[in-house]
Amino acid sequence: MRPQIVLFGDSITEQSFRLGGWGAALANTYSRKADIVNRGYGGYNTRWALFLLNHLFPLGSATPPAAATIFFGANDAALSGRTSERQHVPVDEYKENLKKIVQQLQECSPTILIVLITPPPIDEEGRLQYARSLYGDNAMKLPERTNEMTGVYAEKCVELAKELDLPSINLWSKMQETEGWQKKFLSDGLHLTQEGNAVVYQQVLRVFEDAWLIASKMPYDFPHHSEIDPKNPQKAFQQQCS
C-alpha cells in the first residue's frame, strides 16, 4: 500500500540508517507514507553492484520501487596501485555501469524516479590520520583516494544524469562550499558525520519534493487516529480502504 523508495549504494548508504543517518531521516519524514528500503553494500563499487541488480530489482515485479537513489563512486575512485586498488573501476566503466543500473530500474518501472548521487569529497589528510589510528607505523604512506580524482568521478555521474535527463546531486561540489568541510562533514576523510548526513538528507529531500514525493501531501496508509470514531471505528477504515 505504501510506495517503496530504495537507497542503493555503498557503505555511505549502508550506514545511512545509523543514528543521525540520512536514510533514517528520510524514513522519519516519510513515516506511514512510504517505505524507505536500505540496499547499501559496504566496499562495493559499480562493477560488483551489477551482480545484485536481478536480485534487488527483478524485472516483472508487481510492486517495483516508486523511487531510488543510486549512490556509488567512492570506491570506484580508489586509486590503482594504492592500498584500495581492488575496488578501483576506471572512470569510463564507472559511468557505463551507472547507466546499466539506471536501465535496469527503468525496465522495472518506466515511471520510477531515479536520483544519481555523486561520491562526497575526500579529505586526504583525514584518510591518512584514520589509517595511522588503525595501523600505526604500518599505515599507508600515500592516500588511497584523492579529492581530485574523486571529483572526476563526480563529474561523470552528473554528466550521465544530464544525458539521461535524470536529477542528480553533486555532493562532491556541494560539501566543498562550506568552510572546514573536511572535518565538519567527514568522520574519517570518507564517511559522513551527522552533519554530513544532514547535507545528503536535505539534498535528497529537495529532489524528491521537486518531483512528486512530497511527504506532507502523501496519504497515510491507514487512517490517522484522530479520524477514528471510537463508537464506530470500522467507518474510518471502510472509507480509506474502499
Helical content stands at 40-55%
Q: What's the mean pLDDT score?
A: 93
Main beta sheet: strand number and arrangement? 5 strands, parallel
Approximate shape: globular
Query: How many individual β-strands?
Result: 5
Question: What pattern of helices and strands is seen along the backbone?
Answer: EHHEHHEHEHHEHHHH
In terms of DSSP E residues, the strand content is 5-15%
Summarize the structure in words:
Helix 5 packs parallel to helix 7. Helices cover 43% and strands 10% of the residues. It contains 11 helices and 5 strands. The longest helix is centred in the middle third of the chain and has 18 residues, at 91-108. The protein has 242 residues and is of the alpha/beta class. The two termini are 13 Å apart. The protein has helices spanning 11-14, 22-29, 46-49, 53-56, 91-108, 124-135, 147-164, 171-175, 181-185, 194-210, 234-241; strands at 4-9, 35-40, 67-71, 113-117, 168-169. Strands 2-1-3-4-5 form a 5-stranded parallel sheet, sandwiched between helices. The mean pLDDT is 93.
Can you tag this structure with a few keywords?
11 helices; single chain; alpha/beta; 5-stranded parallel beta sheet; 242 residues; 5 strands
Summarize the structure in short:
This protein is of the alpha/beta class. It has eleven helices and five strands, in the order βααβααβαβααβαααα.
Structural topology:
Blueprint: E1 4-9, H1 11-14, H2 22-29, E2 35-40, H3 46-49, H4 53-56, E3 67-71, H5 91-108, E4 113-117, H6 124-135, H7 147-164, E5 168-169, H8 171-175, H9 181-185, H10 194-210, H11 234-241
Parallel strand pairs: 1-2, 1-3, 3-4, 4-5
